[in-house]
Design goal:
The complex is a heterodimer of chains A (314) and B (535). By secondary structure, chain A is mainly α. Chain A is 78% helix and 0% strand. In chain A, helix 1 runs parallel beside helix 12, helix 4 runs antiparallel to helix 10 and helix 8 packs across helix 10. By secondary structure, chain B is α/β, with parallel strands linked by helices. Chain B has four domains: 192 residues, 3-Layer(aba) Sandwich (Rossmann fold); 70 residues, no CATH class; 167 residues, P-loop containing nucleotide triphosphate hydrolases (Rossmann fold), CATH 3.40.50.300; 73 residues, no CATH class. In chain B, strand 21 and strand 22 form a beta hairpin. The chains are: A mainly alpha (314), B alpha/beta (535).
Chain lengths: 314, 535
């Protein structure tokens, strides 16, 4: 019994175990790693990954892909950089409305027109890349100091607001997926769309909502990025596309839909944010960063498959 | 009667009077008395690209009765159910529920506005979600407490719903953890929890064992006493005759007639009537002669003391001219034995010999190379490329046999496939037909054709007639028999009692991974047989 409970605990939380082990090993290798300022930077860089990862988790759970998250984040920085001088509120409002519309178009294309989500969002990615470059051909623009200060607010070296954002995003993501009808319907749609339909789930509506959540959370990530870099940049969101998938898959959500959750995505976001730092402290060039990320993703995913298949054969 | 064939109403085989016929006449629909129809389907038509599935169907269903809905595959039963549930929209005709004209746009409307629900055989439960969540999937927000789902109340109510069907299981487990029996009952509980007035059971008993079927029947009788209207769809006619008050027979999208069941001791005349109506001929399930009893021929496959996690010391022999069946209760290792021989599962000990030579199988390929072909019962998932054409599906396994210098000779390939199509009499407009558009029987023939082209030594077939209609079943029986006479024996897993008794030359009954009894008589004693199933 106790054995079973331990097994279940390890299965449920293994990615956090990986995270903690990673931190302990890194801290013991490099004295620079075990400082508050390092962890502060890790939390701050994890915020946008966790945010795009939120939407991507929803989309992947419902058996889809969203390739437009990176460029939606870029678009958000671009719009912010040209509209923040109207005031922070209207600018944020505009960004949220625009991203909602983008998500809805993605969702409508996928559900009502039956276009594969990969293709639909790939098209959207190209389209929005052009639009973003039209708005902001070169990095720059105006981001108010108050906005930056608020989002990056620190108490001493502790990044209070970023950690709060991480915590709240985590709570919302986990609770919506586990304890709201919408969340359970996402699992149903991803598990077996045909059964979900037969059981009375409005599959199309669920899909549309999922893509709206994805675009919204990507836009929020973009807003946070714009605060960090203090400007708008048509390229700023690009890395988050791949990071969102890495976070989702490393976090244990299966590419086939219906299995996984947001808890793992958050831990993976922290792992991804940590990798860069430890390598930097070890004086290793940035190129190895990608190699390590690739190996880690393959390793964790492989481990997970191994464990799952062992569990099934028990 | 739009497009309909003549409408006949039989009472156990005899033509029944005009009084019942009147009930079917359209002008009668305004009458509302005690015996008014709960559901009336009036001249319903539905056309899919290339086929008229329903050609104007009219009938009525009353409260407190159980109706059988029978017909061969493709007769239009499922389409009719899907129209009633609002999954498809009819191209013509009307539906009346409780005397009111109903426009059913989607399943939730059928369920909550018209109180009509269906237990489907497949596509029912979401494997990843818990049993409790599955039961209340479309109204989880009913369980909100402070905006979040109250798991305890959800589980309590799910337990209550399952009690209605006599099932006591852990409702927090994922639906995937349960077997077919439990899944069907969960699905039934799910439908009952919505308190339907009209309940359709669409092939729900197909994968069930007889004790569970009886249990389902008890629930149905209870609902009947409560005045509900039930529709029971099944390929197993014995079940239909046991429970249904009236039997609605469809054929080729037409209503062939409605037969009253007077629950006679001997269901044979009724059976004959219904089968005649279903098929248009008197042919029922006809089985070929058991020729393998006389000519066993040389031993093709022999197993010696095969042991694995699921098998205990299995030894058997199959000769050239034989059809040998593995029977028993479901899940006693029959399918696993076939899969083990085919190299899909590994044995711990023991020998598999093919024509006397010991065969090592590290990979399914090793068995295939020696001419051992396993045909899965999950035909659509494991045997066919449903979205590809007949040509590719038949050609694929042996395609390199028709290659020269590594290039496939298109003409040779075509000729080989064409020969197979005509030899097995696969009904397809052309080789370019997508397999998804073929009927179940023709799909199974495509599977057989694929392997026959690869020159098998023996066929290991898991439930060869699973989901096929009466006509297609008979064709498969005759085909397997013909092959055995040509020297390609069959080792098959059979579950249907009628097949078990009539098809194989020899019968091996398995229980808990062990062969416990062998029968090899021309006429098998059903009582003795069933007795051997249980320990």
């Amino acid at each position: 019994m106790a054995d079973d409970r331990l097994r279940k605990f390890v299965l449920d939380w293994y990615i956090y175990i990986v995270l903690v082990v990673f931190w302990i090993v890194s801290s013991s290798i490099s004295p620079f790693f075990r400082t508050m300022s390092t962890f502060s930077t890790i939390f701050v860089s994890a915020v946008p990954i966790a945010l795009v990862g939120l939407g991507q988790t929803f989309v992947v759970l419902s058996r889809g892909f969203d390739l437009s998250v990176g460029v939606v984040a870029s678009l958000a920085t671009a719009i912010a950089s040209v509209t923040m001088h109207w005031g922070i509120g209207p600018s944020i409002g505009l960004i949220l409305v625009v991203s909602c519309a983008i998500g809805m178009i993605n969702g409508l294309g996928v559900s009502k027109l039956g276009i594969d989500s990969f293709i639909m969002t790939l098209g959207m990615m190209f389209l929005l890349t052009g639009v973003t470059l039209l708005i902001r051909p070169s990095p720059g623009g105006f981001i108010p100091v108050n906005f930056k200060r608020f989002l990056l607010y620190q108490v001493g070296e502790f990044p209070l607001v970023p950690v709060l954002i991480l915590f709240l995003t985590g709570c919302v993501g986990v609770l919506v997926l586990q304890k709201r009808r919408f969340g359970r319907e996402i699992y149903a749609v991803g598990g077996d769309p045909e059964s979900a339909k037969m059981s009375g789930v409005d599959v199309d509506r669920t899909r549309i909502k999922v893509f709206m959540v994805s675009a919204l959370s990507a836009a929020c990530a973009g807003l946070f990025v714009s605060a960090r870099i203090g400007s708008g940049n048509a390229e700023a969101g690009a890395p988050y596309l791949f990071d969102s998938f890495t976070a989702v898959f490393m976090g244990g959500t299966l590419v086939t839909g219906g299995i996984g959750g947001y808890r793992g995505t958050i831990a993976s976001a922290l792992i991804i944010a940590s990798i860069g730092h430890i390598l930097q402290f070890l004086g290793i060039t940035i190129w190895y960063h990608f190699i390590v990320k690739g190996l880690l993703l393959a390793g964790v995913a492989g481990l997970q498959l191994f464990v799952v298949s062992r569990e099934r054969n028990r | 009667m739009q497009g309909g064939r003549g409408l006949f109403v039989f009472d156990d085989g005899t033509f029944f009077g005009a009084a019942v016929m009147n009930r079917m006449e359209p002008q009668d629909k305004a009458v509302h008395d005690d015996t008014a129809d709960m559901v009336r389907v009036d001249s319903i038509r539905k056309r899919f690209p290339g086929v008229d599935v329903l050609k104007g169907i009219t009938f009525g269903l009353k409260k407190g009765r159980i109706y059988g809905l029978v017909g061969e595959n493709g007769a239009g039963k499922s389409t009719l159910v899907k129209i009633l549930m609002g999954i498809h929209q009819p191209d013509g005709g009307e539906i009346f529920i409780g005397g009111e004209k109903a426009r059913i746009k989607e399943p939730s409307q059928a369920r909550y506005t018209y109180r009509m629900d269906t237990v489907f055989q497949e596509h029912a439960l979401i494997p990843q979600l818990s049993v409790a969540e599955n039961i209340f999937l479309d109204k989880l927000d009913r369980f909100y407490k402070k905006g979040l789902i109250d798991q305890r109340r959800l589980q309590d109510e799910a337990k209550g719903a399952l009690r209605e069907v006599g099932l006591d299981i852990d409702v927090t487990l994922a639906a995937a953890e349960f077997g077919e029996d439990e899944k069907s009952l969960i699905e039934l509980a799910k439908a009952l929890s919505r308190k339907p007035e009209i309940l359709i059971l669409d092939e729900m008993t197909a994968p069930l064992e007889s004790s569970v079927v009886n249990h389902v029947f008890e629930v149905m009788q209870k609902l009947k006493r409560q005045g509900k209207t039930l529709v029971f769809i099944s390929h197993r006619l014995e079940e239909v005759f046991k429970i249904c008050d009236e039997i609605i027979v469809l054929r080729d999208g037409n209503l062939e007639g409605v037969v009253r069941n007077s629950f006679q001791e001997d269901p044979l005349p009724l059976r004959k009537t219904v089968i005649t109506m279903m098929t248009g001929t008197e042919r029922g399930l006809s089985f070929p002669e058991k020729t393998g009893l006389k000519v066993k021929g040389e031993v093709v496959l022999s197993l010696e003391n095969l042991k694995s996690k699921w098998l205990k010391n299995v030894s058997l022999e199959v000769g050239e001219g034989e059809i040998v069946a593995l029977a028993g209760l479901r899940g006693q290792g029959q399918s696993r034995l076939l899969r083990t021989i085919a190299g899909l599962l590994v044995e711990d000990e023991g020998d598999v010999r093919i024509s006397g030579k010991r065969l090592k199988r590290k990979h399914p390929r090793d068995a295939i190379e020696k001419g051992i072909f396993y045909i899965s019962d999950k035909r659509d998932q494991e045997e066919l490329w449903l979205t590809h054409d007949v040509w590719l599906n038949i050609s694929v396994t042996s395609i390199t046999d028709r290659a020269r210098l590594g290039f496939i000779g298109r003409r040779d390939d075509r000729k080989a496939v064409e020969t197979m199509v005509s030899r097995l009499r696969i009904e397809t407009p052309s080789l370019a037909q997508i397999v998804r558009n073929l009927s179940g029987g023709n799909r199974q023939k495509v599977v057989l054709g694929k392997y026959l082209l690869a020159r098998p030594k023996i066929l290991l077939v898991d439930q060869p007639t699973m989901g096929l209609d009466v006509g297609a079943k008979a064709e498969i029986y005759h085909l397997l028999r013909k092959l055995s006479q040509e020297g390609i024996p069959t080792l098959a897993v059979l579950t249907d009692l009628e097949e078990v008794v009539n098809l194989p030359d020899r019968l091996l009954v398995m229980r808990e991974g062990e062969i416990v009894k062998e029968f090899s008589k021309a006429v098998m004693d059903e009582v003795e047989l069933l007795d051997s199933y249980y320990g």
